[in-house]
Amino acid sequence: MPTDFILLGAAKSGLYLGDFLFILISFLILVALVGHFAWKPVADMMQKRSDKISNDIDNAEKSRQDAEKLDKQRQDALKNSQNDANKIIESAKDNGEKQRQTIITNAQQEAQTLRETAQKDIAQERQDALDSARNDVADISVEIATKIIGKQLNAADQKDLIDSYIEGLGKSNGNK
């Protein structure tokens, strides 16, 4: 009954079964052709676009991870360089302190050597002055003795006279 209704409706509107089948077959052929020539390329294009977007997202995620790794490496390198700089500064301070101590020690040793040399020079000068004074006293004593005694003393006599004079001075100083 429903097919009769369709056929009756088609007969009233002027459509016949042959026309209907022709239109139906043409429509199915058109759908098949559109599906084969238009739908497949559009679907392939959409799949490629979907794949590209998926790959772009994956690449973006990978790039983000790489950027995070690089940032971490940069921060680690920065920390290491700061630690290295601190070590270099500490080493330079230590070396500077050692050099300062060495310079101070060398200066103190040099000053001590100069003091000792000066003291030796002073002692030598004092001894030279005493020897000179002794010789001057001996010469003056000989001149005085020569004038008093009236005769010339030789070197051995002068030495004996001076030694006895010095002994006499030592005894007179010891008695006091």
From TrEMBL:
Gene name as annotated: atpF
InterPro entries named among the record's database cross-references: ATP_synth_B-like_membr_sf, ATP_synth_b/b'su_bac/chlpt, ATP_synth_F0_bsu_bac, ATP_synthase_B_chain
Subcellular location per the Swiss-Prot or TrEMBL entry: Cell membrane; Endomembrane system
Coiled coil spans: none
Record text on subunit structure and interactions: F-type ATPases have 2 components, F(1) - the catalytic core - and F(0) - the membrane proton channel. F(1) has five subunits: alpha(3), beta(3), gamma(1), delta(1), epsilon(1). F(0) has three main subunits: a(1), b(2) and c(10-14). The alpha and beta chains form an alternating ring which encloses part of the gamma chain. F(1) is attached to F(0) by a central stalk formed by the gamma and epsilon chains, while a peripheral stalk is formed by the delta and b chains.
Family in the record: Belongs to the ATPase B chain family.
Protein name, entry field: ATP synthase subunit b
Lineage, highest ranks first: Bacteria, Bacillati, Bacillota, Bacilli, Lactobacillales
SUPFAM superfamilies the record matches: F1F0 ATP synthase subunit B, membrane domain
Tree of life domain: Bacteria
